[in-house]
């Protein structure tokens, strides 16, 4: 009798595995026996993506939903990237309720313009992880730690995906996160977006007409007392740098700003107070680059007090990029504010078609054949063969990268067939440990003389990038070695 029941369960599992998500959810409610089999099907992580370029918003949403829900899944999170043609609020309602609301006058079903049309939908199920927890930047670190501690045995999450409002400068907040989180917490995202969010049954949907948030963070944390039959999910990230430093180290002498829009700088060589002609400096750098097309930035080394724990008087040191708008005989004009007299910087030039902006498989351990991870295959819940251990990936790429598919080819060429999706960003979020900058010698000496927090200050880091690509991969390690296929 027991053997017959087991055989029936195997048949039922094979059938349930082929159902779309909505039918699968209904089947899980039939009885306890069916529910148990459904839980077995959901023992493995799942990542699904879909893209529609349909000019009708309701039709586009239906197309992507039908695709991502065509197989069994219990979504823990959903990320929808909406083309500028569509109403963000209307798209949000459609994705949430799978129904067509009253569309406002700004959206037409017959609108067929090619520019920025479409919707990209990403959903995921990560057994063994609690998430995503959603927190706001106003008390971001406290919320992240409290949330993670409530579901896990630590206060540091496994990973965070961050979306920032395009009207807010997240430089200082990201510097705090980078300083406070251990190096193995993976952080990626888009710092200049428009977003709507909802989390849980009691959360408020974002209403940009009433208020706005600086950012939203999707936080993934390991659960306490995880069952033994659930494998390990890991996050791995790498990034490409799309800018190269060029020219001497300079120093800001005077700084004048117009709100948060522009800053006017007089500059000198670092260590000198003689004002230089900004236009001449930029012309010399352009000649050195043989007048190659691209965008010029300045990378400013900033030492600032903590914006969260100001009473501790600790300093954070980080690299901030500002786009160069103009250089004349007197001033260097850059986009943005926050530079102070005495800050040191270098010019950077975008390198969107060079080796510097290519993500390679060497940047992610699990894609390196010589790594301890390697590739392996395992039996999935329906008896089929799972692919590798990499079951999904996200790419956050600069909108200035004209050859994104070429630059990232080594990653998806080396990755087993698996859902991958990407978003174009104005400012990319990613922890780049390879580009840490050493402090100038005179500033190191000042820190040694001052004692306290300055002595322990680490080299400058950068979490907010320009002209770069950040690749985030999801990796699954099955619970039992006998699931591997030799």
TrEMBL record:
Record field: compositional bias (Acidic residues): 439-457
Region feature Disordered, mapped onto this chain: 436-457
Domain called F-box: residue spans: 9-41
InterPro entries: F-box-like_dom_sf (IPR036047), F-box_dom (IPR001810)
Pfam families the record matches: F-box (PF00646)
Family matches, as PANTHER family: F-BOX ONLY PROTEIN 22, FIST C-DOMAIN DOMAIN-CONTAINING PROTEIN
Name under which the protein is recorded: F-box domain-containing protein
Organism: Hibiscus sabdariffa (roselle)
Native organism taxonomy: Eukaryota, Viridiplantae, Streptophyta, Embryophyta, Tracheophyta
């Amino acid at each position: 009798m027991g053997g017959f029941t087991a055989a029936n369960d195997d048949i039922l599992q094979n059938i349930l595995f082929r159902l779309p998500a909505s039918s699968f959810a209904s089947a899980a409610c039939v009885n306890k026996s069916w529910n148990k089999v459904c839980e077995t099907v959901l023992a493995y992580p799942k990542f699904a993506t879909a893209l529609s370029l349909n000019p009708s918003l309701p039709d586009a949403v239906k197309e992507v939903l039908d695709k991502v829900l065509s197989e069994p899944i219990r979504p823990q999170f959903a990320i929808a990237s909406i083309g500028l043609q569509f109403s963000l609020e209307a798209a949000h309602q459609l994705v949430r309720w799978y129904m067509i609301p009253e569309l406002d006058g700004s959206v037409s079903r017959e609108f067929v313009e090619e520019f920025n049309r479409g919707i990209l939908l990403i959903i995921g199920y990560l057994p063994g992880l609690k998430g995503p927890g959603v927190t706001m930047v106003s008390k971001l670190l406290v919320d992240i730690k409290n949330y993670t501690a409530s579901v896990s045995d630590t206060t540091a999450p496994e990973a965070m995906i961050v979306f920032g409002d395009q009207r807010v400068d997240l430089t200082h907040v990201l510097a705090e996160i980078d300083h406070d989180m251990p190096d193995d917490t993976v952080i990626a995202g888009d710092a200049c977006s428009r977003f709507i969010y909802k989390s849980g049954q009691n959360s408020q949907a974002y209403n940009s007409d009433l208020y706005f948030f600086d950012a939203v963070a999707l936080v993934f944390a390991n659960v306490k007392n995880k069952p033994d039959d659930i494998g390990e999910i890991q996050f791995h990230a790498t990034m490409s740098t799309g800018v190269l430093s060029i020219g001497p180290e300079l120093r800001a002498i005077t700084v004048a700003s117009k709100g948060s829009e522009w800053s006017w700088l007089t500059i000198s060589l670092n260590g000198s107070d003689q004002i230089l002609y900004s236009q001449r400096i930029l012309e010399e750098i352009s000649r050195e680059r043989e007048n190659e097309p691209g965008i010029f930035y300045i990378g400013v080394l900033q030492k600032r007090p903590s914006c969260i724990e100001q009473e501790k008087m600790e300093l954070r040191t980080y690299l901030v990029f500002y786009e160069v708008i103009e250089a004349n005989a007197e001033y260097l004009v850059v986009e943005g504010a926050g530079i102070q007299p005495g800050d040191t910087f270098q010019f950077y030039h975008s390198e969107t078609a060079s080796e510097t902006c290519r993500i390679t498989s060497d940047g992610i351990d699990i894609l390196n054949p010589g790594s301890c991870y390697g590739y392996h295959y395992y039996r999935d819940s329906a008896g089929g063969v799972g692919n590798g251990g990499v079951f999904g990936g996200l790419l956050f790429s600069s909108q200035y990268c004209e050859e994104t598919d070429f630059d990232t080819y080594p990653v998806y060429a080396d990755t087993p067939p698996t859902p991958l999706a990407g978003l174009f960003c104005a400012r990319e979020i990613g922890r780049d440990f390879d580009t840490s900058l050493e402090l100038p010698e005179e500033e190191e000496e000042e820190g040694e003389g001052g004692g306290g927090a300055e002595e322990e200050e680490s080299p400058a880091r950068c979490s907010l990038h320009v002209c770069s690509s950040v690749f985030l991969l999801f990796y699954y390690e099955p619970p039992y070695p006998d699931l591997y296929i030799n």
